[in-house]
Structure formats: structure tokens, C-alpha cells
Write a structure and sequence with these properties.
ABC transporter involved in vitamin B12 uptake, BtuC; single chain; 357 residues; 4 strands; two-stranded antiparallel sheet
Length: 357
């Protein structure tokens, strides 16, 4: 079978520590990468801009939050505010004449600095107390954006993104927006994969598992918690800027409210806490499942198979969606990535089912 491990021998540390030591994994990654690059030529502009583009961008946001919650073990229920800071900062910098490449870096730094200030609460509190600190950041940033016209223009104002170029390519087409979002998400993916294999990643995991024990063995807990908040906020800020320029093309305060923060946390948890693949699966599940369920319910109602009121038809997809999330948490708390991993391990030893990995 294509997943068979026989004949694969690691005689060097370099091959043993490869990101994808199994050939089947490398082929899957290559296939998905080719599919992602060819997507604008395979799908219509509607599918590209309405489904694939937001999925790619939100996967990048989920990956940014995974670095903080999954790798470092620090809770954050105000990540939408981090993205909002990046979105508004990038627009104002670009309007001031700063090239988009530098505006994205400035957006990430602004989000990282403000996110680190609130992340400093993690140095003294954790658990539900840390959740309250990040919630305070969410509501404070929301209030600041709404009530300071110099930032947003007012509570009901819409801030348009200016016409921009990235690396001398114009960002006026859906294809250009998609490729910029894909480039950023692939970069974040490779970054998280390599951080998890580095000494920094192992230190963050030690802090996540037991910060007191990590301090005993010589890890600077204060430093690595701040590093986690800084890096995650930087990535989240740039992702918020990408979301503004490539998808929304105009931002309002409602686009980064508390509900978005909850959705981002749901993506990380449903996909699999700490899993890179889970960030993609969780983002796809949270973003696309309600749309798919709505279309199915409306179709069945149109056929007369669901003889219910219009109000109930509108709420049935949300009820099924909530039940699916509860089902995942009950039957597979480690998320969608764990389901994939179970299937992968089954194929690794098939047909010898008595073998356990």
C-alpha cells in the first residue's frame, strides 16, 4: 500500500527529523500545494472569492492562534481584536504612502506590541483569569475603534482599502487576492511546523504542560510566554491585514467583534488543539459547514420533505451545526486532526490490525 513503511530506513538524523519522513505524506502535501496553486484555473470566481479565499485566510488566523493556544497553552478569547489592530494599521499606513509590504509588517508589529501588553497578564494569572484579561482586550479595542473617529471614522463608518500592489503585482483581481492569501498562509504553516521542531517550540510545550516544572529545569517561563504572545499577535495582525485587503476590501468594527474571536477558538478546538492540519480542518468546518447545511435544508424544504415554518428552516442548520460540535467534543476531544491521524495510522499497519503504533 502507498502508506507502507517497509523499506524506509533512517540512517541519518536529517532524514529522521524531516517534516514529512513518509513518502505518502510528502505526496499528499505536494498534491494539495499544486491544487492550491491551480485553484483559480479550476474553480469559478464565485467559488474562489466566496469559499476558498476566506477559508485560506481564516486558516492562517487559526494557525496564528494555534501557536499561542495549542503550542504554548495560553488561552486567548480576544484574538479578533488582534486582527482588527492589524487591519486598521495596515490601511492607515498604506493610505499614508507606505508600500503594502511594509504596511503588513507594521500591522504585525502594532498587533504584537499591544497584544504583548495584554499578554503580560499571563505572567501572573492563567486559566479563566487569563480568559478575562483577553476579553478585556477585545472589548477595549472594540470601544477604541468605535469611539475614536481617527481610527475607524465612527461607529457606522466603513474604511475602504486603497488600491495597492504587492511585489509590483496589482491587487485588483480575485486571483491576485487569492495568491497573496495563499502565500501568507503557506508561510505561516511552514513557520509553525518548524517552530514546533525547534528548541523554542519545545520550551513552549514545556511551559504549556507545567510551567513550574519548566522553570525548575531552567526555562525562562516569563520570556517564553511573552514570546508566544508576541509571535502569535504578530501573525494575527498580518492575517487581519490580509483579510482586509484581500477579502473584505473595506473594514467596519463589526467585522472583528467578540463572535469572531469565539469562532477562531472553535476552529482551533474542533480542528485539534496544537495541530497544523487541524487549523485547516477547523477553519473549513466552522466556515463552510453552516453554509452547506443551510443549502441542504433549503433544498429539502423546497422539495417538500421538510414541512416546517420558514423561521425553523433558518434555525435547523445552526442546531445541526451545534450538535456536530458537541459530538466532536464528546467522541473525539482531540478534534478532526486526530480522526485523520487515526485513519492514517490504520493505513500504516493495514492489514495487520493487531499492530499498534
Amino acid at each position: 500500500m502507498f502508506y507502507r513503511l517497509s523499506g524506509i530506513y533512517h540512517t541519518r538524523y536529517k532524514t529522521a527529523r524531516a517534516l514529512f519522513p513518509i513518502p505518502a505524506d510528502r505526496r499528499q502535501v505536494l498534491f494539495l500545494l499544486v491544487l492550491g496553486v491551480a485553484a483559480p484555473f479550476l474553480f469559478s470566481n464565485f467559488v474562489l472569492s466566496s469559499y476558498l479565499l476566506p477559508w485560506i485566510i481564516l486558516s492562517g488566523a487559526a494557525l496564528s492562534l494555534t501557536l499561542l493556544m495549542g503550542v504554548a497553552g495560553q488561552l486567548h478569547f480576544g484574538f479578533a481584536s488582534v486582527m482588527a489592530i492589524g487591519a486598521y494599521t495596515s490601511i492607515h499606513l498604506n493610505r499614508a504612502g507606505v508600500p503594502l509590504e511594509f504596511a503588513l509588517v507594521g500591522a504585525g508589529l502594532a498587533s504584537a506590541l499591544i497584544g504583548s501588553v495584554f499578554g503580560a497578564a499571563a505572567l501572573r494569572v492563567k486559566g479563566l483569569y487569563l480568559v478575562m484579561a483577553t476579553l478585556a482586550m477585545q472589548y477595549l479595542v472594540d470601544w477604541t475603534i468605535v469611539n475614536i473617529p481617527a481610527i475607524s471614522g465612527g461607529a457606522q463608518a466603513t474604511l475602504q482599502t486603497p488600491r495597492s500592489t504587492f511585489l509590483w503585482f496589482s491587487l485588483q483581481s480575485d486571483m491576485a487576492h487569492y495568491y497573496l492569501a495563499l502565500l501568507w498562509t503557506v508561510f505561516v504553516t511552514l513557520l509553525i511546523l518548524n517552530i514546533k521542531r525547534s528548541s523554542i517550540g519545545r520550551a513552549l510545550v514545556a511551559v504549556r504542560d507545567k510551567d513550574y516544572a519548566a522553570a525548575v529545569i531552567g526555562i525562562d517561563v516569563v520570556r517564553f510566554k511573552l514570546v508566544a504572545f508576541f509571535a502569535s499577535s504578530f501573525l494575527g495582525g498580518v492575517t487581519g491585514a490580509i483579510l482586509a485587503f484581500c477579502y473584505y476590501q473595506a473594514v467596519t468594527p463589526e467585522q472583528f467583534n467578540f463572535n469572531v474571536s469565539v469562532q477562531l477558538v472553535a476552529m482551533v478546538l474542533v480542528g485539534g488543539l496544537g495541530s497544523v492540519l487541524g487549523s485547516y480542518l477547523g477553519a473549513g468546518f466552522v466556515l463552510l459547514t453552516p453554509i452547506l447545511l443551510t443549502n441542504i435544508v433549503v433544498y429539502l424544504a423546497g422539495l417538500g420533505w421538510l414541512n416546517v415554518s420558514t423561521n425553523l428552516v433558518a434555525h435547523i442548520p445552526l442546531m445541526i451545526y451545534g450538535a456536530l460540535i458537541i459530538g466532536f467534543l464528546l467522541f473525539e476531544p482531540l478534534g478532526l486532526a486526530k480522526i485523520y491521524d487515526n485513519l492514517r495510522k490504520y493505513l500504516l499497519v493495514w492489514p495487520f490490525r493487531q499492530t499498534k503504533l
